[in-house]
Every structure is written in C-alpha cells, then in structure tokens.
Design brief:
single chain, alpha/beta, FAD/NAD(P)-binding domain, 8-stranded mixed β-sheet, 18 strands, 29% helix, 26% strand, globular, binds flavin-adenine dinucleotide
C-alpha cells in the first residue's frame, strides 16, 4: 500500500479499517543467502539496500527483541555532517544527502526536519577550532557558517549569553543538520525491506556463529540454526558481546548514554544546540518536549539504564546554558548502550572470518549514520569491496595507525 494524502482521506472515510501491517511476521527459514544480525537502524537499512541497490532479497534480519528496541529507538535524533576529518566527512555527508531524499524514497514520513545544528564556543581557542572545522567542511563541500554572538542572540534568545563563567561568543552552524523521528526511520526501512522480500524476524537472538575452516556458514539462534553464505553483524551496543561469540575482540567499549525529555512547551529552541563548555546538547521535539543529553555514565555496562549523578551533571550544563530549563519538568529519562570506539569513528568492514562482516563503533552518533551505514555495509557484503565513502572505516586501523581521530565531534571513552 502506498501512503498518500488520498489514502489518508480514503481510510478516514472508511473507518481506518484498510491499513495493512508494515511488515510480515515470517517464520525463519533454515537457510538464507545473507543473514543480518540486529534489527536496529543499521540492520534494517542494510537489508533494504541489499534488496534495493543489489537485488539481493534472500535476506533475513534477526532481531533479539522487537525492531528498533535498541538505540535506534532511544536516541536524541540529531542528524548532521559537521565533521573535521576526511575519513568521516565523505561518509556523513553521503548520509546527509540520503536523509534529504529518504522520505520520498521510502514513501514514509520519518519527520526529517532540517532545522539546523549549532556548536557553541565560549572562548578564542574554541572559536579557532570551530573556524578550522567550518573551513574543512566548506572545502569538502559541506555547508558551514560561523555565527557571531549577535546572530545567535537573535536565533536563541532563551540562552544565557552573559553567563559569568561561560559567556557565549558564537557558534558553528550547519543549516542542513536537524532531527528525524527515530522509530519512523526504522519502520520506514523495515517496511521497504519487507516489501522487497526480506524476512524480518523478531524475538530471535543470535547465540553463536557456525564457523568452520575460518568460514562463517551461519548462526545459532534461540529459534534454531540458520545457515547463510554471508553474515553481517549490526548490533551497536552489543558489538563486543556478539562478536565475542565469533571469537573476535574489538577496539570498542560499551557504555550507557542517557537522555531526558521534558513536558511539552511552546517553541523555544529552533534547532539542535551543543554547549561548548560542558557536555550538554539540546533540541525541541515536534511535540514540544525539550530533549537533552550529555555525558556517558563513565563505566562499561550493557544495562539500558543509567544513574542520577550523570543526569545531575548534564542538568548543570543545561542550567548554565539556559537557566529557564530549570522550570521545565522532566517527563522521561532513559539510557541506551553505545558502542564507543577508541578514536570516536565507526567501523564498516569484513573480519578475519570469511563471510562475516561487521558494522559498529557508532559512539554517540550512529543514528545520523543509518542511511549511509546501511548503504555502505550492503555494498561491502554484496560486492566484497568497501564503498568509497566508508573505505577508511577499517577494523585494523589501530594496528596500522590509520586512525580517524575525530576529537571534538565524536566522543571517545578515553576523554570521559
Ligand atoms: C541516549 C542516546 C542518544 C543518542 N543520540 C544520538 C543523536 O542525537 N544522533 C545520532 O546520530 N546518534 C545518537 N545516538 C546513537 C545512536 O542511537 C546509535 O549509534 C545507533 O542507533 C546505533 O545503530 P542501530 O540503530 O543499528 O543500533 P540499535 O538500535 O541498538 O540496534 C542493534 C540491535 O541489535 C539487537 N541485538 C543485539 N544483540 C543481538 C543478538 N545477539 N541477536 C540479535 N539481535 C541482537 C538489539 O536488540 C538492537 O535492536 C544516541 C544514543 C543514545 C543511547
């Protein structure tokens, strides 16, 4: 069923009884050409592009819970491509371009809203770093504008520009950045993959890999063994644990990252903003809730919930930036498990096991990477060669020294 204004009208006039489920609930087959492990954003996007871009439809996505039950459904939805280093710039800009056409491509309202993102600076060295990043972005064809204090004051009157300790001096603005509805992105890709014949199998946890003679021949699951010619692992916060089942150790740590949302308020924040003097970032949802987050909880964990001292620290950052936030009531707070790589940049690569592929190390920022992450992993699995936009995202880069040390834009666990 195609979605359209006419369809809404037709369904509205006939009691909304004609809507179809977004995807089928198939039983797992004994064997697939390709098995994708993990039904978050990257898993379903990979399956979608395998089918759409490469015509590979004998594909199953195996998800231990429900689709989108991991970080895809827990993040603060910011999309951007304001990176400094070449290894990341091409990839995240590719993702941004895919976001820009995504809803039309998927025929699904993912609420992509390019309301802009600004990284604030509070002193001269920070201004120089912002200018450097902005110039690097502009050279790579990515939009970037250095805003002065007056321009920001007009845009964000709610901020405390004259804070004694952290006066706001300006910010680096990416107009094409913004937000998207996290669940809808997963549902849109899942629907698109299902329509092309991909089996989306929920409540099916991968518990082991069938590896013989250095070749991955399938997976063990809570619903039985499933054979496969190729297996692609997209489990984000569970990367270390799942790849450990294949005997591989990764340069990744899993940490809890929390976020909060307040009651709905009238529009006060037009865009996504990161505070430059502490770890705090904020935007306002379409329903009016102020969505904000900050630091990791500071210790390794697989628990999808965090602790109050970190929330207190994040709220202190919020109070320094916009004291009015102290009057808002927090409605919900939650945690997700993020897969922190040691240089703040991700991996999309093959592994020493033939037929086993891996994506991960998404740190704080894998939501915005979902379109390009899925596209590039599908390319790698289908063709055996890395996509040019993701060629630097290799698993061996700590051994070779070719790290993508994106400090300032990708948060590293070693900085916390
Ligand atoms: C609080 C918070 C805020 C964030 N804010 C942003 C943001 O503003 N912008 C941004 O770009 N990024 C943000 N992120 C990061 C982003 O959400 C993640 O990097 C991204 O969602 C990870 O990719 P994914 O969607 O594929 O992961 P997930 O949705 O976590 O998908 C992985 C899936 O694998 C499944 N799985 C795990 N183990 C197994 C197994 N053994 N068998 C089968 N399935 C398994 C899980 O159940 C899960 O559904 C944030 C994260 C958090 C926690």
């Amino acid at each position: 069923m195609r979605y359209s204004a006419l369809q809404i009208l037709r369904q509205g006039l006939t009691g909304n009884r004609g809507w179809k489920p977004l995807w089928r609930e198939p039983q797992p087959k004994q064997r697939y050409d390709i098995v994708v492990v993990g039904g978050g954003g990257h898993g379903v996007a990979t399956a979608y592009y395998l089918a759409k871009a490469h015509g590979l439809t004998d594909v199953a996505v195996l998800e231990k819970g429900w689709l989108g039950s991991g970080n895809a459904g827990r993040n603060t939805t910011i999309i951007r491509s304001n990176y400094l280093l070449p290894g990341n710039q091409a990839f995240y800009e590719f993702s941004m371009k895919l976001w820009e056409g995504l809803e039309r491509e998927l025929n699904y309202n993912a609420m992509v809203s390019q309301r802009g993102i600004v990284n604030l600076f509070h002193n001269d060295p920070q201004r120089d770093a912002a200018a450097r990043r902005g110039n690097a972005m502009a050279l790579a064809g990515i939009d970037a504008v250095l805003l002065d204090r007056e321009a920001l004051q007009r845009k964000f009157p709610v901020f405390d520009f004259d804070n004694e300790r952290f006066p706001i001096k300006g910010g680096l603005w990416q107009k094409r950045g913004g937000t998207a509805r996290h669940d809808a992105v997963v549902w849109g890709y899942a629907r698109g993959a299902d329509r092309r014949g991909v089996d989306l199998i929920q409540n099916c946890e991968v518990t082991g890999f069938d590896i013989r003679g250095g070749v991955c021949r399938g997976v063990e699951t809570t619903r039985g063994a499933i054979g496969a010619n190729r297996v692609a692992v997209c489990v984000a916060g569970s990367s270390g644990r799942v790849m450990g089942l294949a005997g591989l150790r990764l340069p990744i740590e899993s940490h809890v990252l929390q976020a909060c949302v307040t009651e709905g308020l009238k529009p006060v924040i037009d865009g996504a903003i990161t505070f430059g003097a502490g770890h705090f970032y904020v935007c306002q949802s379409d329903k009016g809730g102020i969505v904000f987050g900050g630091d990791l909880d500071g210790y390794n964990s697989y628990a999808q919930r965090g602790n109050l001292p970190t929330v207190e620290d994040v709220c202190e950052g919020g109070m320094a930036l916009m004291p009015a936030i102290g009057r808002a009531r927090v409605l919900r707070m939650w945690g997700g498990v993020v897969d922190m790589s040691m240089d703040g940049s991700p991996f999309i690569d093959g592994t020493p096991v033939d037929g086993l592929y891996f994506t991960g190390g998404w740190c704080y920022g894998g939501f915005k990477a979902i379109p390009a992450g899925g596209y590039c992993l599908a390319h790698l699995v289908a063709t055996g060669a890395p996509h040019p936009a993701a060629a630097a995202m290799r698993l061996d880069r700590f051994a070779t020294g070719a790290v993508i040390d994106e400090n300032g834009a990708g948060a590293q666990p070693n900085l916390h």
